[in-house]
User: Which sequence fits this backbone?
């Protein structure tokens, strides 16, 4: 069985109406992430954060001191949107910009202690929402799901990371 056997080749196969929304993975992934983000909005608003700001803080809490271009990829945010979010985060003292020592054209972004504290305030809500998403899913199913998502990401990514 080759990799194309499951869904057919790129030019033929069932139409979306034949597949159905409940069987179309991109629709399901978007709907899930829409609900996940909506579940965080109230807590984000209390902290003066938006989804792009939260994503930047989340990434920087794990991988600090990133070039803006790389942070945009990890935060799944257009670079122009991220730049505006970083302006606000910097004004609030949650991140800091520094010149990239290896590339004079680039800027690196680091999370501050205040930024880490803001993210840690939000983390329990993120964790609770994550746990709710996976309620009734055992460890083996969860691991298989994450492994499948990682394979899909390898198929669609445009960057080496």
Assistant:
């Amino acid at each position: 069985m080759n990799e194309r056997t499951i869904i057919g080749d790129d030019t033929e196969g069932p139409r979306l109406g034949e597949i159905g929304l409940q069987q179309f993975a991109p629709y399901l992934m978007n709907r899930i992430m829409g609900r996940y983000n909506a579940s965080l909005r109230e807590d984000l608003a209390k902290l003066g954060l938006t989804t792009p700001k939260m994503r930047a803080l989340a990434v920087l809490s794990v991988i600090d001191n990133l070039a803006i271009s790389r942070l945009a990829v990890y935060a799944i945010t257009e670079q122009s949107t991220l730049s505006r979010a970083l302006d606000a985060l910097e004004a609030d003292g949650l991140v800091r910009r520094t010149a990239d020592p290896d590339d004079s054209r680039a800027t690196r972004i680091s999370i501050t202690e205040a930024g880490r504290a803001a993210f840690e305030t939000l983390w329990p809500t993120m964790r609770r929402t994550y746990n709710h998403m996976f309620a009734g899913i055992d460890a083996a199913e969860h691991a298989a799901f994450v492994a499948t998502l990682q394979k899909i990401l390898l198929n669609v990514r445009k960057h080496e990371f």
Remarks:
- The beta strands are 66-67, 95-100, 103-111.
- The mean pLDDT is 93.
- The two ends are 28 Å apart (CA to CA).
